[in-house]
């Protein structure tokens, strides 16, 4: 499985966790069942993001101006969380530019017309 597909599945799980309050295990079980596959990278992304959620949210809030996380679209919020996890914690495995590019692609695919620019701007500022 490609890492892009793994990130898509991770985003789906994080979205479920965010909106329905299901735990990481339940969300991963659902996503794996729906995609008829399991993936360790997806599991690492979801579990790592949820375990460090407060730290990740604090980091994101440092770079959003005049926005609160709970007022963002759920897709944008969870794309940012996933990418921030990769930038902060998993940087040795994934180059920062790759993590940002993947996040922008997820935002284009699952977000609104403005999501990609929004995500790119925040992650770009975070990288600097």
Give your account of this protein's structure.
- The longest helix is centred in the N-terminal third of the chain and has 18 residues, at 3-20.
- The protein has seven helices and no strands.
- The protein is mainly α and 128 residues long.
- The chain has one domain (3-127): NusB-like (N-utilizing Substance Protein B Homolog, Chain A, Orthogonal Bundle), CATH 1.10.940.10.
Which bin fits the share of residues in helices?
over 70%
Question: How many structural domains?
Answer: 1
| Strand segment count | 0
Tell me the overall shape: globular
Low-confidence stretches: none
CATH superfamily: NusB-like
Please provide the ordered H/E string of secondary-structure elements: HHHHHHH
CATH architecture: Orthogonal Bundle
CATH fold group? N-utilizing Substance Protein B Homolog, Chain A
CATH first level: Mainly Alpha
Mean pLDDT equals 93
Q: Largest sheet, if any?
A: none
Indicate the structural class.
Answer: mainly alpha
Q: How many H/I helices?
A: 7
- Computed CA radius of gyration, to the nearest angstrom: 13 Å
What are the salient characteristics of this protein?
mainly alpha; 7 helices; 128 residues; N-utilizing Substance Protein B Homolog, Chain A
List the helices and strands and how they pair.
Layout lengths: L2 H18 L3 H12 L4 H12 L1 H11 L10 H15 L7 H15 L4 H13 L1
Helix pairs in contact: 1-2, 1-3, 1-5, 3-5, 4-5, 5-6, 5-7, 6-7
Please give a quick description of this structure:
This protein has a single domain, classed as N-utilizing Substance Protein B Homolog, Chain A (Orthogonal Bundle). It is built from seven helices and no strands. α1 packs across α2, α1 crosses α3 and α5 packs antiparallel against α6.
